[in-house]
Write a structure and sequence with these properties.
Chain A is an alpha/beta fold. Chain A has 10 helices and 14 strands. Chains A, B: This is Sugar or nucleoside kinase, ribokinase family.
């Protein structure tokens, strides 16, 4: 049994009001697999890089017990590169450079050793590639989580709608939920989106936490108020990785476990933004994670006496 | 022992995407006192109206057990009037008309029968009038809650800072917390604001809930996701009234009771927005309020097993 995470493995150059980086390792699958590795030991990555991606970079995955057999390395080609600059409020950013490189014709390979997949995280990529991964698995995983973004709603809505029929959980942000559904109210949006295929919808609201919708139930998870958000890059992917990693660990998919999974994902994401790139989430201890989760418990617990 | 609520008692004309009203009764003290009356029976209002405010309008308070001895009625003058139009997202609005009328030279009168005040809610008004009320009370109440807005930060910041030194709890929204502190991060903003006087700071985030800061503690309260927000007018005042009404009922001021007070205040506010003006909050049953509070419990409860 294993957890497959597919998504970009890339280089990012990030500028925030606090400073800027050279090319550092990033990408949705990078953040998500590192986050998941804190909860589950059989994480397997699917992605593609160029030969500018060095052994050191791959070692980071290996040290976290992440299987990289499904990470294709294209000789003579370059890895996906993204560069962006965050505004002062850290809630908006400008993309400075996007070089697709190896991602332009990415054809995901699922190694035979990955066919024991029980949990599948489809990180943000073209809906067609996401769909291809599902079709290349011989057995349908117990849980398929899909992350996407407004860009695919703009340019590949039909493919996205087809892919949504095949998944169990969709994670998007509030603006994307509004765009996908055509509804401003998130309650109305959730009803329309749950009718598109997913049984669970997670709406990420950044500094305002997250909402989980399932049937007629809703759960509101808080975000940890932070004095300093240093670099938001990868927070959503870290959330998704922590979320599915926790579910893979507990093994049973239900509303209660999903609520907890959201808290664990949020805790990992709250670490992610404290330093540039993956710097903070490659060196966490179990104790740090447990203490952060306890902060979320303290943050949101109240006891109403009847 | 009693709870005094001071603030505007006014007429509003409201336009939303769902419809528009003629002049209806509104004002911060109206919403807050009605909300408080669901939890506490000795609510006393301080305000001023013109003789366009009819006996029927006063009867609404009386029916809820609200003492109106401190509500001045100015013969031959007109009540404060506000008219506004909400945009499609319901999060922003244009003020169409503001007629101060009797509010222009409001001198709050504290009847002798109000001198048993233990809980004091200073609704949004000029900081000087708010301060006058504190000074006219012979004994300092056990708890003073102050609500204010960006307008007073623009035109009367010095007065506001003086008044803040005298209160226990400040309720403002996230943009106002940023303006008052000069800090974007709400954690940093809270530290600066708590150094200005208040021991507790409540930051209202509308559809994203509320944050309570006290010493080094923080509590995040969810907002109930609603399919339809019909009219947001008065939601903040309803929240504040429910909040202090609940505290007056339990009598003891501490962090735990404040957390519950925020949930009860949020529950009342979630009713407020379901109809125009005060229409929904003048006719609630105890059972409806209890069921709504239970929705907040269900919405935010999770159980992490160690």
């Amino acid at each position: 049994m294993s957890l497959i995470i597919i998504g970009t493995v890339a280089f990012d150059a990030i500028e925030t009001p606090f400073g800027k980086t050279d090319k550092i390792v990033g990408g949705a699958a990078t953040y998500a697999s590192l986050a998941a590795s804190y909860f589950y030991k059989k994480v397997k990555i699917v992605g593609v890089v160029g030969d500018d991606f060095h052994q050191d970079d791959i070692d980071t995955f290996t040290k976290h017990g992440i299987n990289t057999e499904g990470l294709q390395i294209k000789k003579g080609e370059k890895s996906f590169f993204w560069s962006g600059k965050y505004h002062n409020d850290m809630n908006s950013r400008d993309t400075l450079i996007t070089e697709l490189n190896v991602l332009a014709d990415f054809d995901p390979i699922i190694p035979e050793s990955y066919q024991d997949c029980e949990f599948l995280m489809l990180g943000n990529l073209t809906p067609q590639v996401q769909q291809t991964v599902i079709k290349r698995l011989k057995n349908r995983p117990k849980l398929i989580v899909l992350d996407t973004m407004n860009f695919w709603m703009d340019v590949a809505m039909d493919d996205l709608l087809e892919t949504l029929k095949l998944v169990d959980v969709l994670t998007i942000n509030d603006e994307e939920a509004r765009q996908l559904s055509g509804e401003y109210s998130l309650v109305k949006a959730s009803r329309k989106i749950l009718a598109m295929g997913p049984k669970y919808l997670i709406i990420k609201k950044g500094e305002h936490g997250a909402l989980l919708f399932h049937e007629d139930k809703v759960f509101s998870a808080p975000a940890l108020p932070l004095a300093e958000v240093f670099d938001p890059t990868g927070a959503g992917d870290t959330f998704a990785g922590g979320f599915i990693g926790y579910l893979a660990k507990v093994g049973t998919v239900n509303f209660n476990n999903m609520k907890n999974a959201i808290i664990f994902g949020s805790a990992l994401a709250s670490f992610c933004v404290e330093k540039f790139g993956t710097e903070k989430i490659i060196n966490l201890t179990e104790q740090e994670v447990a203490a952060r989760v306890q902060q979320f418990v303290n943050l949101s617990t109240f006891t109403i006496e009847a």
